[in-house]
Amino acid sequence: MHQFKLVASAFAALALSSLSLAAQAGVTFAIGGHSGSCSVFGPTPNQPELEFRKTMTGLGPCDVVITVSGIAAGGFAEFTISEEVVNTTGLKWHDFHHTLGYGRGAGFKESMETDEVYFRDNFTHTGDRFALSGQDDPIQPDTLDWLVSGADFPSSGLTNNKFKLGVHIQDVDAMGVADNDGSTTFTLRQRATIVPEPSALSLYLLVSGAALLAGRRRP
């Protein structure tokens, strides 16, 4: 009887996995525009992930608006963003930052904790020339902070860096509210910094530690 339950559980897990794959199969991507000191090329068509190239002529922010269609109504999509970044700012980069949100420029609004739009925690985010140094939430981060690996990232127009980002997108509108229309438009905001900047996680630990010490010193 115990063996039968194990087999049944295995079949159930396989069925759920198949349904998940089927739900993602019809998902399509489109870039609806960008703003800031950057140019965007792509996305590359007929790819199972969102793939595009970006040249930055300034430190940012650079806002790239992305629409994901083919989501099951009221459901979600999980996919990979493969983004190639070229530095033509004339400056060497030390840190890099990605933030999820809505809108562009002065109208940008960061993703909320309740909208289920976040960088996946079950995905290994990578950068060719950068290493992940922190994030603003250990489970469902809206911001990823990167630190250059080795020498600062040069401005040449010839050297590039490819980021691989895992994203979870819920079926919501441009305000982060569920609308059940099978499409979500969000913004991938990016900026570079030329001096060491404390990551969100490091800053959180620093502030928490200071608060803890202050509490212990109270009579």
Structure commentary:
The strands form two sheets. Strands 1, 4, 6, 7, 10, 11 and 13 form a seven-stranded antiparallel β-sheet that branches. Helix content is 19%, strand content 40%. It is built from two helices and 13 strands. It is globular, with a radius of gyration of 20 Å. It has helices at 2-25, 200-217, and strands at 28-35, 38-41, 50-56, 62-69, 76-87, 95-102, 109-110, 118-119, 126-127, 130-135, 143-148, 160-170, 183-193. Mean pLDDT is 83; it is low at 1-23, 203-208 and 210-219.
Please sum up the structure shown:
By secondary structure, the protein is of the alpha+beta class. It has helices at residues 2-25, 200-217; strands at 28-35, 38-41, 50-56, 62-69, 76-87, 95-102, 109-110, 118-119, 126-127, 130-135, 143-148, 160-170, 183-193. The chain contains 2 helices and 13 strands, in the order αβββββββββββββα.
- Biggest beta sheet summary: 7 strands, antiparallel
Shape: globular
Count, helices: 2
The count of β-strands is 13
Q: Could you tell me the radius of gyration in angstroms?
A: 20 Å
Give the % helix: 10-25%
Structural class: alpha+beta
- Uncertain spans, ≥5 residues at pLDDT below 50? 1-23, 203-208, 210-219
Q: What percent strand? A: 35-45%
Helix and strand sequence = HEEEEEEEEEEEEEH
Oligomer: single chain
Task: Give the terminus-to-terminus CA distance.
Answer: 63 Å
Give the mean pLDDT.
83
